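Re: Re: C-alpha cell formats

Sure, here are both.
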Amino acid sequence: EFAPEKGLRSIREIIKDLSKPVAKRHLRSRKQGGKEIQYISWHDAVKYLDHYAPGWNYEVRNIQNIAGKLILTVRLSVPCAEGIVFREATGQEDEDRENYGDSSSNAESMALRRASAKFGLGLYLYDQ
C-alpha cells in the first residue's frame, strides 16, 4: 500500500527536511523564565507539515484536568514509504489563565508543536 512509486518518501527523508532550520520569518519569541525563547507558531508548523509531510494527520487522544491544569495528549501521524509513523506529545495550560487564548487551544498548540518537534520540526529550538 505505501510505496515510493506512489510518491511517498521515506520517514528519514521527511525527518531530514523537517529538521532544517525554520525560516526566520516564521520564528516568534517570548519571555519565559527570565529569558527570551524562540518558537514556531502552530499555524506555521501546519504549513511545514503540509509541505514536507503531505497527508499528515493529527488527533487529540486524551484530555485531562489535573491540579488546575488542562493536559492534552495528541498523536501526529505521517504517511511514508515505510507505512504510517506517529509520534505523541502532551501540552498543558493553567485553566485559570488570563493571557491570550483559552486553556484548551493553548494546550493543543503546545502539543502539536511538541509532536512536530519529534519529527524534527524546530527541534533545535529546544536547545535554547
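Second one below.
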Amino acid sequence: MQRSPRYWHAPDEYRPERWFERGEGSPYARDVHEAFKPFSSGPRACLGREVALQTLRLTTALLAYRFDLKMKDQHRFIWEREVESRMVYSGYHVKAVVQERV
C-alpha cells in the first residue's frame, strides 16, 4: 500500500516534498497520506510500542507515588466545559500544584 501508484505519485521514488507540497497544482495533490503506515497496524505493529507504553505507565506511577498532586482552582474546573473530547482526553489543561513527598 505504501508503494502503490493507486495512492501515491511516483511511489518508488524518495520524494520528501510530497509531505509539504500538497496543494492544487502539485503532483502530490492526490496522494492519500492515510495509506502511509510505516510501523504497520494491529498487534504486531511496532516492536517498541509496548515497551514505550509500559515506560509511560511506570513513569506515571512513579510521579504519583513520589509527589503530591493537587489541582489548582478545582472549583473552577468543569469537566464538560473544559474537555473537548471525552473519548480521547485531549485538548485540556489542568493547572496543578506539585510537592515532593517527605
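The first strand starts at residue 67 and ends at 71. The helical segments are 49-66, 79-82.
- S.
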